[in-house]
Amino acid sequence: MTTAVAPAPAKAPAAPLFGKAEKKAVLDPLWDNNPIALQVLGICSALAVTIKLDQTVLMCVGVIAVLCASNTIISLLRNMIPSKIRIIIMLVVISSLVTLVDILLKRFAFDVAKGLSVFVGLIVTNCIVMGRAEAFAMANKPWPSFLDGLGNALGYSWILLAVAFFRELFGSGTLFGVRVIPASVYADAGGFYFNNGLMVLAPGAFLLLGVIVWVQRGISGYTESH
Amino acid sequence: MDRKSNAYVVTFAVTVCAISAVCLSAAYNTFAADIAANELFDQQKNVLIAVGLYERTEPKSDEELRNLYDNFIEEKVLQVKREDVERPVKQGGVEGTETQEEVVDMVETEYLIADLAGLRREEGKKPEGDRREFATVFRRKDDAGATVAWCIPISGYGLWSTLYGFLALEPDLATVKGITFYKHAETPGLGGEVDNVNWQAQWPGKSVLDAQGNVVGVQLKKGVVDSSVAYEKSHMVDGLSGATITSNGVTKFVKSDLERYEPFFKKNRTE
Protein backbone atom coordinates (compact mmCIF):
# COMPACT_ATOMS: atom_id res chain seq x y z
CA MET A 1 0.00 0.00 0.00
CA THR A 2 1.34 3.37 -0.90
CA THR A 3 0.15 6.57 0.57
CA ALA A 4 0.62 8.48 -2.63
CA VAL A 5 -2.65 9.48 -4.15
CA ALA A 6 -2.95 9.00 -7.86
CA PRO A 7 -4.40 12.02 -9.62
CA ALA A 8 -8.02 11.42 -10.37
CA PRO A 9 -8.65 10.73 -14.03
CA ALA A 10 -10.39 13.53 -15.75
CA LYS A 11 -14.12 12.90 -15.73
CA ALA A 12 -16.78 14.04 -18.05
CA PRO A 13 -18.69 16.79 -16.27
CA ALA A 14 -21.28 14.91 -14.23
CA ALA A 15 -24.24 16.18 -12.33
CA PRO A 16 -22.94 17.91 -9.18
CA LEU A 17 -23.09 15.81 -6.02
CA PHE A 18 -24.89 18.60 -4.20
CA GLY A 19 -26.56 20.73 -6.83
CA LYS A 20 -29.75 22.68 -6.42
CA ALA A 21 -31.95 19.67 -7.15
CA GLU A 22 -30.09 17.53 -4.62
CA LYS A 23 -30.38 20.16 -1.92
CA LYS A 24 -34.05 20.44 -2.63
CA ALA A 25 -34.47 16.65 -2.36
CA VAL A 26 -33.10 16.74 1.20
CA LEU A 27 -34.49 20.06 2.41
CA ASP A 28 -37.96 19.97 0.88
CA PRO A 29 -39.31 17.10 3.00
CA LEU A 30 -37.91 18.74 6.13
CA TRP A 31 -40.32 21.63 5.96
CA ASP A 32 -42.28 22.45 2.78
CA ASN A 33 -43.29 18.90 1.99
CA ASN A 34 -42.94 17.20 5.36
CA PRO A 35 -44.17 13.59 5.24
CA ILE A 36 -45.93 13.83 8.60
CA ALA A 37 -47.09 17.44 8.72
CA LEU A 38 -48.23 17.76 5.12
CA GLN A 39 -48.70 14.28 3.74
CA VAL A 40 -49.84 12.93 7.11
CA LEU A 41 -48.01 9.62 6.63
CA GLY A 42 -46.34 7.46 9.26
CA ILE A 43 -48.64 8.64 12.05
CA CYS A 44 -48.96 5.22 13.68
CA SER A 45 -45.36 5.06 14.85
CA ALA A 46 -45.38 8.77 15.63
CA LEU A 47 -47.99 8.00 18.28
CA ALA A 48 -46.54 4.72 19.51
CA VAL A 49 -42.85 5.33 20.07
CA THR A 50 -42.72 8.90 21.31
CA ILE A 51 -43.16 8.37 25.06
CA LYS A 52 -39.43 8.34 25.75
CA LEU A 53 -36.78 10.21 23.77
CA ASP A 54 -34.24 7.37 23.80
CA GLN A 55 -36.73 5.04 22.13
CA THR A 56 -37.67 7.73 19.65
CA VAL A 57 -34.06 8.37 18.69
CA LEU A 58 -33.56 4.67 18.02
CA MET A 59 -36.74 4.50 15.98
CA CYS A 60 -35.60 7.49 13.93
CA VAL A 61 -32.21 5.90 13.33
CA GLY A 62 -34.01 2.76 12.17
CA VAL A 63 -36.27 4.65 9.80
CA ILE A 64 -33.39 6.74 8.40
CA ALA A 65 -31.37 3.58 7.72
CA VAL A 66 -34.26 1.69 6.17
CA LEU A 67 -35.53 4.58 4.05
CA CYS A 68 -32.11 5.53 2.66
CA ALA A 69 -31.18 1.92 1.92
CA SER A 70 -34.54 0.93 0.46
CA ASN A 71 -34.65 3.99 -1.81
CA THR A 72 -31.11 3.31 -3.01
CA ILE A 73 -31.67 -0.39 -3.64
CA ILE A 74 -35.02 0.08 -5.35
CA SER A 75 -33.50 2.79 -7.50
CA LEU A 76 -30.61 0.51 -8.50
CA LEU A 77 -33.08 -2.18 -9.47
CA ARG A 78 -35.63 0.17 -11.03
CA ASN A 79 -34.93 -0.83 -14.62
CA MET A 80 -34.97 -4.53 -13.81
CA ILE A 81 -38.08 -4.74 -11.64
CA PRO A 82 -41.02 -6.10 -13.64
CA SER A 83 -43.80 -3.59 -13.13
CA LYS A 84 -46.34 -6.36 -12.49
CA ILE A 85 -44.67 -7.37 -9.24
CA ARG A 86 -42.95 -4.13 -8.27
CA ILE A 87 -44.89 -3.63 -5.03
CA ILE A 88 -44.03 -7.14 -3.85
CA ILE A 89 -40.37 -6.64 -4.69
CA MET A 90 -40.35 -3.37 -2.75
CA LEU A 91 -41.89 -5.19 0.19
CA VAL A 92 -39.23 -7.90 0.07
CA VAL A 93 -36.46 -5.31 0.02
CA ILE A 94 -38.02 -3.18 2.76
CA SER A 95 -38.89 -6.05 5.06
CA SER A 96 -35.41 -7.56 4.66
CA LEU A 97 -33.89 -4.23 5.63
CA VAL A 98 -36.22 -3.90 8.60
CA THR A 99 -35.34 -7.41 9.79
CA LEU A 100 -31.68 -6.50 9.44
CA VAL A 101 -32.20 -3.33 11.51
CA ASP A 102 -34.07 -5.41 14.10
CA ILE A 103 -31.16 -7.86 14.38
CA LEU A 104 -28.65 -5.04 14.72
CA LEU A 105 -30.70 -3.27 17.39
CA LYS A 106 -31.06 -6.50 19.38
CA ARG A 107 -27.31 -6.89 19.23
CA PHE A 108 -26.23 -3.36 20.04
CA ALA A 109 -29.11 -1.77 21.95
CA PHE A 110 -31.07 -4.64 23.45
CA ASP A 111 -32.95 -2.80 26.18
CA VAL A 112 -34.21 0.04 24.06
CA ALA A 113 -35.00 -2.33 21.19
CA LYS A 114 -37.08 -4.38 23.62
CA GLY A 115 -38.93 -1.25 24.65
CA LEU A 116 -39.77 -0.61 21.00
CA SER A 117 -41.23 -4.15 20.87
CA VAL A 118 -43.21 -4.66 17.67
CA PHE A 119 -42.71 -1.16 16.38
CA VAL A 120 -39.34 -1.84 14.79
CA GLY A 121 -40.93 -4.59 12.73
CA LEU A 122 -43.76 -2.24 11.89
CA ILE A 123 -41.39 0.09 10.03
CA VAL A 124 -42.33 -2.22 7.14
CA THR A 125 -45.83 -0.79 7.20
CA ASN A 126 -44.68 2.82 7.52
CA CYS A 127 -46.33 4.45 4.53
CA ILE A 128 -43.39 6.80 4.05
CA VAL A 129 -41.00 3.97 3.13
CA MET A 130 -43.25 2.35 0.56
CA GLY A 131 -44.46 5.74 -0.63
CA ARG A 132 -41.00 7.06 -1.43
CA ALA A 133 -39.98 3.79 -3.13
CA GLU A 134 -43.01 3.93 -5.41
CA ALA A 135 -43.15 7.68 -5.97
CA PHE A 136 -39.48 8.55 -6.23
CA ALA A 137 -36.98 5.69 -6.30
CA MET A 138 -38.72 3.83 -9.14
CA ALA A 139 -38.18 6.83 -11.40
CA ASN A 140 -34.87 8.33 -10.28
CA LYS A 141 -31.17 7.53 -10.11
CA PRO A 142 -29.66 6.04 -6.92
CA TRP A 143 -27.97 9.19 -5.58
CA PRO A 144 -31.04 11.47 -5.77
CA SER A 145 -33.11 8.58 -4.41
CA PHE A 146 -30.77 8.20 -1.47
CA LEU A 147 -31.03 11.93 -0.76
CA ASP A 148 -34.80 11.82 -1.09
CA GLY A 149 -34.88 8.94 1.43
CA LEU A 150 -32.61 10.84 3.78
CA GLY A 151 -34.69 14.01 3.50
CA ASN A 152 -37.96 12.26 4.16
CA ALA A 153 -36.54 10.24 7.03
CA LEU A 154 -35.16 13.41 8.62
CA GLY A 155 -38.47 15.19 8.07
CA TYR A 156 -40.17 12.32 9.86
CA SER A 157 -37.53 12.25 12.59
CA TRP A 158 -37.63 15.87 13.67
CA ILE A 159 -41.40 15.80 14.11
CA LEU A 160 -41.13 12.56 16.11
CA LEU A 161 -38.40 14.03 18.28
CA ALA A 162 -40.44 17.18 18.85
CA VAL A 163 -43.44 15.11 19.94
CA ALA A 164 -41.26 12.91 22.16
CA PHE A 165 -39.57 15.94 23.72
CA PHE A 166 -42.87 17.33 24.99
CA ARG A 167 -44.31 13.94 25.90
CA GLU A 168 -41.33 12.90 28.00
CA LEU A 169 -40.90 16.34 29.56
CA PHE A 170 -44.52 16.76 30.63
CA GLY A 171 -45.42 13.07 30.93
CA SER A 172 -42.46 11.88 32.99
CA GLY A 173 -40.56 15.05 33.89
CA THR A 174 -37.40 13.69 32.30
CA LEU A 175 -35.44 14.05 29.06
CA PHE A 176 -33.49 11.01 27.85
CA GLY A 177 -34.26 9.49 31.25
CA VAL A 178 -32.52 12.35 33.09
CA ARG A 179 -34.73 14.21 35.55
CA VAL A 180 -35.38 17.76 34.35
CA ILE A 181 -38.32 18.79 36.52
CA PRO A 182 -36.85 18.55 40.03
CA ALA A 183 -38.33 15.82 42.20
CA SER A 184 -38.89 18.35 45.00
CA VAL A 185 -41.70 20.19 43.19
CA TYR A 186 -43.82 17.04 42.88
CA ALA A 187 -46.89 16.67 45.05
CA ASP A 188 -45.43 13.44 46.51
CA ALA A 189 -42.58 15.45 47.98
CA GLY A 190 -44.84 18.22 49.21
CA GLY A 191 -44.77 20.35 46.07
CA PHE A 192 -47.57 21.30 43.72
CA TYR A 193 -46.64 19.50 40.50
CA PHE A 194 -48.15 16.44 38.84
CA ASN A 195 -46.98 14.67 35.70
CA ASN A 196 -49.46 15.03 32.89
CA GLY A 197 -50.84 11.50 32.54
CA LEU A 198 -52.39 12.31 29.17
CA MET A 199 -48.93 12.77 27.69
CA VAL A 200 -47.90 9.15 28.20
CA LEU A 201 -51.05 7.88 26.49
CA ALA A 202 -51.65 7.74 22.74
CA PRO A 203 -54.36 10.46 22.78
CA GLY A 204 -51.79 12.88 24.22
CA ALA A 205 -49.58 12.25 21.23
CA PHE A 206 -52.54 12.82 18.93
CA LEU A 207 -53.23 16.23 20.45
CA LEU A 208 -49.56 17.17 20.41
CA LEU A 209 -49.12 16.02 16.83
CA GLY A 210 -52.20 17.99 15.85
CA VAL A 211 -50.74 21.13 17.42
CA ILE A 212 -47.38 20.59 15.72
CA VAL A 213 -49.04 20.05 12.32
CA TRP A 214 -51.13 23.17 12.91
CA VAL A 215 -48.15 25.31 13.83
CA GLN A 216 -46.06 23.90 10.99
CA ARG A 217 -48.80 24.53 8.43
CA GLY A 218 -49.46 27.96 9.88
CA ILE A 219 -45.86 28.97 9.31
CA SER A 220 -45.30 27.18 6.00
CA GLY A 221 -48.57 28.58 4.67
CA TYR A 222 -49.83 25.23 3.40
CA THR A 223 -53.53 24.82 2.74
CA GLU A 224 -55.39 21.73 1.62
CA SER A 225 -56.41 21.95 -2.01
CA HIS A 226 -59.85 20.73 -2.86
CA MET B 1 -34.92 -12.36 -21.75
CA ASP B 2 -38.13 -10.52 -22.40
CA ARG B 3 -38.86 -8.23 -19.47
CA LYS B 4 -42.57 -8.83 -19.78
CA SER B 5 -42.43 -12.62 -19.98
CA ASN B 6 -43.61 -14.71 -17.04
CA ALA B 7 -40.28 -16.52 -16.97
CA TYR B 8 -38.48 -13.23 -16.33
CA VAL B 9 -40.91 -12.22 -13.59
CA VAL B 10 -40.54 -15.55 -11.80
CA THR B 11 -36.74 -15.61 -12.16
CA PHE B 12 -36.45 -12.07 -10.88
CA ALA B 13 -38.69 -12.71 -7.88
CA VAL B 14 -36.85 -15.90 -6.93
CA THR B 15 -33.46 -14.21 -7.26
CA VAL B 16 -34.43 -11.25 -5.08
CA CYS B 17 -35.87 -13.56 -2.42
CA ALA B 18 -32.81 -15.82 -2.46
CA ILE B 19 -30.43 -12.87 -2.10
CA SER B 20 -32.38 -11.37 0.82
CA ALA B 21 -32.62 -14.76 2.50
CA VAL B 22 -28.87 -15.29 2.29
CA CYS B 23 -28.09 -11.77 3.53
CA LEU B 24 -30.46 -12.09 6.49
CA SER B 25 -29.22 -15.53 7.54
CA ALA B 26 -25.65 -14.31 7.33
CA ALA B 27 -26.46 -11.27 9.47
CA TYR B 28 -28.39 -13.34 11.99
CA ASN B 29 -25.72 -16.00 12.33
CA THR B 30 -23.04 -13.36 12.78
CA PHE B 31 -24.85 -11.92 15.79
CA ALA B 32 -26.78 -14.92 17.12
CA ALA B 33 -24.37 -15.62 19.98
CA ASP B 34 -24.27 -11.97 21.08
CA ILE B 35 -28.05 -11.66 20.90
CA ALA B 36 -28.41 -14.84 22.99
CA ALA B 37 -26.04 -13.33 25.56
CA ASN B 38 -28.13 -10.15 25.64
CA GLU B 39 -31.28 -12.20 26.15
CA LEU B 40 -29.72 -14.20 28.97
CA PHE B 41 -28.60 -11.02 30.71
CA ASP B 42 -32.09 -9.62 30.29
CA GLN B 43 -33.53 -12.71 31.96
CA GLN B 44 -31.08 -12.42 34.84
CA LYS B 45 -32.11 -8.80 35.23
CA ASN B 46 -35.73 -9.91 35.41
CA VAL B 47 -34.89 -12.45 38.12
CA LEU B 48 -33.28 -9.59 40.07
CA ILE B 49 -36.41 -7.48 39.61
CA ALA B 50 -38.74 -10.31 40.63
CA VAL B 51 -36.87 -11.09 43.84
CA GLY B 52 -36.70 -7.40 44.74
CA LEU B 53 -32.98 -6.74 44.28
CA TYR B 54 -33.38 -4.22 41.51
CA GLU B 55 -35.94 -1.74 40.27
CA ARG B 56 -36.36 -1.10 36.58
CA THR B 57 -35.81 2.64 36.86
CA GLU B 58 -32.81 2.37 39.17
CA PRO B 59 -29.65 3.56 37.44
CA LYS B 60 -27.32 0.58 37.76
CA SER B 61 -24.52 -0.38 35.42
CA ASP B 62 -24.45 -3.80 33.78
CA GLU B 63 -21.40 -4.56 35.87
CA GLU B 64 -23.25 -3.86 39.14
CA LEU B 65 -26.18 -5.98 38.02
CA ARG B 66 -23.92 -8.90 37.14
CA ASN B 67 -22.28 -8.65 40.56
CA LEU B 68 -25.65 -8.57 42.29
CA TYR B 69 -26.73 -11.64 40.37
CA ASP B 70 -23.53 -13.56 41.01
CA ASN B 71 -23.46 -12.75 44.72
CA PHE B 72 -27.07 -13.08 45.75
CA ILE B 73 -28.75 -15.46 43.31
CA GLU B 74 -28.26 -19.19 43.45
CA GLU B 75 -29.43 -21.17 40.44
CA LYS B 76 -30.59 -24.74 40.82
CA VAL B 77 -31.58 -27.34 38.26
CA LEU B 78 -34.23 -29.75 39.51
CA GLN B 79 -35.17 -33.09 38.07
CA VAL B 80 -38.92 -33.45 37.78
CA LYS B 81 -40.46 -36.83 38.54
CA ARG B 82 -43.95 -37.55 37.29
CA GLU B 83 -46.19 -40.47 38.10
CA ASP B 84 -49.71 -41.52 37.36
CA VAL B 85 -51.84 -40.61 40.34
CA GLU B 86 -55.42 -41.75 40.91
CA ARG B 87 -57.72 -38.94 41.83
CA PRO B 88 -61.35 -39.22 42.77
CA VAL B 89 -63.61 -37.50 40.27
CA LYS B 90 -67.32 -36.94 40.27
CA GLN B 91 -68.93 -36.92 36.89
CA GLY B 92 -72.66 -36.75 36.35
CA GLY B 93 -73.28 -37.68 39.98
CA VAL B 94 -71.23 -40.87 39.68
CA GLU B 95 -68.11 -41.07 41.78
CA GLY B 96 -65.12 -42.73 40.25
CA THR B 97 -61.39 -42.35 39.88
CA GLU B 98 -59.31 -40.90 37.12
CA THR B 99 -55.66 -41.47 36.46
CA GLN B 100 -53.68 -38.29 35.93
CA GLU B 101 -50.00 -37.75 35.42
CA GLU B 102 -48.72 -35.44 38.12
CA VAL B 103 -45.44 -34.12 39.38
CA VAL B 104 -44.73 -36.15 42.50
CA ASP B 105 -41.21 -35.06 43.27
CA MET B 106 -38.48 -32.64 42.36
CA VAL B 107 -34.92 -33.58 43.14
CA GLU B 108 -32.00 -31.19 43.20
CA THR B 109 -29.26 -32.00 40.71
CA GLU B 110 -25.67 -30.95 40.26
CA TYR B 111 -26.34 -29.57 36.78
CA LEU B 112 -25.87 -25.90 35.97
CA ILE B 113 -28.44 -23.74 34.25
CA ALA B 114 -25.76 -22.71 31.77
CA ASP B 115 -25.60 -26.31 30.48
CA LEU B 116 -29.33 -26.88 30.48
CA ALA B 117 -29.90 -26.38 26.76
CA GLY B 118 -27.34 -29.04 25.91
CA LEU B 119 -28.72 -31.36 28.56
CA ARG B 120 -32.22 -31.05 27.16
CA ARG B 121 -30.97 -31.82 23.67
CA GLU B 122 -29.33 -34.99 25.01
CA GLU B 123 -32.55 -36.04 26.70
CA GLY B 124 -34.45 -35.49 23.48
CA LYS B 125 -32.42 -38.25 21.82
CA LYS B 126 -33.39 -40.86 24.41
CA PRO B 127 -36.43 -43.10 24.09
CA GLU B 128 -39.47 -41.32 25.45
CA GLY B 129 -39.80 -43.38 28.62
CA ASP B 130 -36.22 -42.71 29.70
CA ARG B 131 -36.18 -38.96 29.24
CA ARG B 132 -35.59 -36.87 32.29
CA GLU B 133 -37.44 -33.60 32.75
CA PHE B 134 -35.66 -30.61 34.21
CA ALA B 135 -36.85 -27.41 35.78
CA THR B 136 -34.97 -24.40 37.10
CA VAL B 137 -35.40 -22.51 40.32
CA PHE B 138 -33.61 -19.44 41.65
CA ARG B 139 -32.90 -18.69 45.29
CA ARG B 140 -32.12 -15.22 46.55
CA LYS B 141 -29.82 -15.48 49.52
CA ASP B 142 -28.46 -12.86 51.90
CA ASP B 143 -24.82 -12.41 52.90
CA ALA B 144 -25.11 -15.26 55.42
CA GLY B 145 -26.59 -17.58 52.83
CA ALA B 146 -30.11 -17.59 54.28
CA THR B 147 -33.02 -17.63 51.86
CA VAL B 148 -34.65 -14.26 51.20
CA ALA B 149 -36.81 -15.32 48.27
CA TRP B 150 -37.45 -18.07 45.74
CA CYS B 151 -38.06 -17.46 42.08
CA ILE B 152 -39.46 -19.73 39.38
CA PRO B 153 -39.82 -19.24 35.64
CA ILE B 154 -43.41 -18.97 34.46
CA SER B 155 -44.64 -19.25 30.91
CA GLY B 156 -47.80 -19.95 28.98
CA TYR B 157 -50.13 -18.80 26.26
CA GLY B 158 -51.74 -15.41 26.18
CA LEU B 159 -53.62 -14.28 23.11
CA TRP B 160 -51.00 -14.02 20.36
CA SER B 161 -47.94 -15.42 21.99
CA THR B 162 -46.31 -17.37 24.75
CA LEU B 163 -45.50 -15.12 27.68
CA TYR B 164 -42.30 -15.73 29.61
CA GLY B 165 -41.59 -14.34 33.02
CA PHE B 166 -40.54 -14.93 36.59
CA LEU B 167 -42.55 -15.24 39.75
CA ALA B 168 -40.82 -14.73 43.08
CA LEU B 169 -42.11 -15.99 46.42
CA GLU B 170 -41.21 -15.15 50.00
CA PRO B 171 -39.33 -17.84 52.01
CA ASP B 172 -42.72 -19.13 53.27
CA LEU B 173 -43.31 -20.20 49.63
CA ALA B 174 -46.89 -19.02 49.90
CA THR B 175 -46.66 -15.26 49.50
CA VAL B 176 -45.82 -13.54 46.22
CA LYS B 177 -42.76 -11.30 46.29
CA GLY B 178 -42.82 -10.08 42.73
CA ILE B 179 -43.58 -10.85 39.11
CA THR B 180 -41.98 -9.86 35.83
CA PHE B 181 -42.41 -10.71 32.19
CA TYR B 182 -39.44 -10.57 29.86
CA LYS B 183 -40.77 -11.87 26.58
CA HIS B 184 -44.18 -11.80 24.94
CA ALA B 185 -45.90 -10.45 21.86
CA GLU B 186 -49.24 -9.36 23.29
CA THR B 187 -50.97 -6.24 21.97
CA PRO B 188 -49.20 -3.11 23.24
CA GLY B 189 -51.54 -1.18 25.51
CA LEU B 190 -53.86 -4.16 26.14
CA GLY B 191 -52.30 -7.56 26.89
CA GLY B 192 -48.92 -5.86 26.69
CA GLU B 193 -49.81 -4.13 29.96
CA VAL B 194 -48.43 -7.19 31.78
CA ASP B 195 -45.25 -5.09 31.62
CA ASN B 196 -46.91 -2.21 33.46
CA VAL B 197 -45.05 -1.75 36.74
CA ASN B 198 -48.14 -0.36 38.46
CA TRP B 199 -50.07 -3.50 37.63
CA GLN B 200 -47.17 -5.74 38.65
CA ALA B 201 -47.04 -3.84 41.95
CA GLN B 202 -50.37 -5.44 42.92
CA TRP B 203 -48.83 -8.90 43.06
CA PRO B 204 -46.54 -8.74 46.11
CA GLY B 205 -48.33 -9.92 49.24
CA LYS B 206 -50.87 -12.11 47.44
CA SER B 207 -51.13 -15.64 48.70
CA VAL B 208 -50.85 -18.56 46.28
CA LEU B 209 -52.14 -21.10 48.81
CA ASP B 210 -55.64 -21.24 50.25
CA ALA B 211 -56.37 -21.85 53.95
CA GLN B 212 -56.11 -25.62 53.44
CA GLY B 213 -52.72 -25.32 51.81
CA ASN B 214 -53.91 -26.10 48.28
CA VAL B 215 -52.30 -24.24 45.39
CA VAL B 216 -54.77 -21.68 44.07
CA GLY B 217 -52.32 -19.31 42.40
CA VAL B 218 -53.25 -15.69 41.82
CA GLN B 219 -56.28 -14.92 39.71
CA LEU B 220 -56.72 -11.97 37.39
CA LYS B 221 -60.21 -10.81 38.14
CA LYS B 222 -62.31 -9.36 35.37
CA GLY B 223 -62.55 -5.83 36.65
CA VAL B 224 -61.15 -4.36 39.81
CA VAL B 225 -60.39 -6.31 42.95
CA ASP B 226 -62.84 -5.62 45.78
CA SER B 227 -60.52 -5.52 48.78
CA SER B 228 -63.41 -5.81 51.22
CA VAL B 229 -63.83 -9.44 50.13
CA ALA B 230 -61.18 -11.48 51.95
CA TYR B 231 -60.67 -14.05 49.18
CA GLU B 232 -60.27 -11.42 46.47
CA LYS B 233 -57.92 -9.41 48.63
CA SER B 234 -55.54 -12.31 49.17
CA HIS B 235 -55.81 -14.26 45.91
CA MET B 236 -56.73 -11.80 43.15
CA VAL B 237 -55.29 -8.90 41.19
CA ASP B 238 -57.01 -6.58 38.70
CA GLY B 239 -57.55 -8.04 35.27
CA LEU B 240 -56.03 -6.31 32.26
CA SER B 241 -58.73 -4.27 30.57
CA GLY B 242 -59.36 -5.19 26.98
CA ALA B 243 -57.25 -8.32 27.37
CA THR B 244 -59.47 -11.07 28.74
CA ILE B 245 -57.64 -13.87 26.99
CA THR B 246 -54.21 -12.67 28.14
CA SER B 247 -55.60 -12.29 31.68
CA ASN B 248 -57.09 -15.79 31.71
CA GLY B 249 -53.87 -17.16 30.28
CA VAL B 250 -51.78 -15.58 33.03
CA THR B 251 -54.16 -16.90 35.70
CA LYS B 252 -53.93 -20.37 34.23
CA PHE B 253 -50.21 -20.72 33.75
CA VAL B 254 -49.25 -19.08 37.04
CA LYS B 255 -51.34 -21.73 38.78
CA SER B 256 -50.10 -24.67 36.73
CA ASP B 257 -46.46 -23.62 37.09
CA LEU B 258 -46.89 -23.29 40.85
CA GLU B 259 -48.49 -26.75 40.96
CA ARG B 260 -45.55 -28.16 39.10
CA TYR B 261 -43.12 -26.82 41.70
CA GLU B 262 -45.31 -27.67 44.68
CA PRO B 263 -43.48 -30.94 45.56
CA PHE B 264 -40.21 -28.97 45.74
CA PHE B 265 -41.83 -26.12 47.65
CA LYS B 266 -43.30 -28.54 50.21
CA LYS B 267 -39.83 -29.71 51.10
CA ASN B 268 -38.49 -26.17 51.48
CA ARG B 269 -41.41 -24.41 53.09
CA THR B 270 -40.55 -22.74 56.37
CA GLU B 271 -43.24 -21.87 58.81
Largest β-sheet summary of chain B: 6 strands, antiparallel
Q: What's the alpha carbon Rg of chain B, rounded to whole Å?
A: 23 Å
Query: Proportion of β residues of chain B?
Result: 25-35%
Oligomer: heterodimer
Biggest interface pair, residues each?
A: A-B, 25 and 24 residues
User: What order do the strands of the largest sheet of chain A run in, or round the barrel if closed?
Assistant: 1-2
Number of helices of chain B: 6
Structural class of chain A: mainly alpha
- The count of β-strands of chain B is 8
Helix content of chain B: 25-40%
Provide mean pLDDT of chain B, rounded. Answer: 89
- Could you state the order of secondary-structure elements of chain A as H and E? HHHHHHHEEH
Number of strands of chain A: 2
How widely separated are the two ends of chain A? Answer: 63 Å
Instruction: Please mark out the parts of chain A with pLDDT under 50 across 5 or more consecutive residues, or reply none.
Output: none
Walk me through this protein's architecture.
The complex is a heterodimer of chains A (226) and B (271). Chain A is 57% helix and 2% strand. The longest helix of chain A is centred in the last third of the chain and has 31 residues. Chain A is globular and about 65 Å long. Chain A starts with 19 loop residues before the first helix and ends in a 6-residue tail after the last helix. With 271 residues, chain B is α+β, with helices and mostly antiparallel strands. Chain B has a 6-stranded antiparallel sheet, with helices on both faces. In chain B, β7, α5 and β8 form a beta-alpha-beta unit. The termini of chain B are far apart. Chains A and B meet through α4 and α5 of A and α1 of B.
Concise description?
The complex is a heterodimer of chains A (226) and B (271). With 226 residues, chain A is mainly α. In chain A, 57% of the residues lie in helices and 2% in strands.
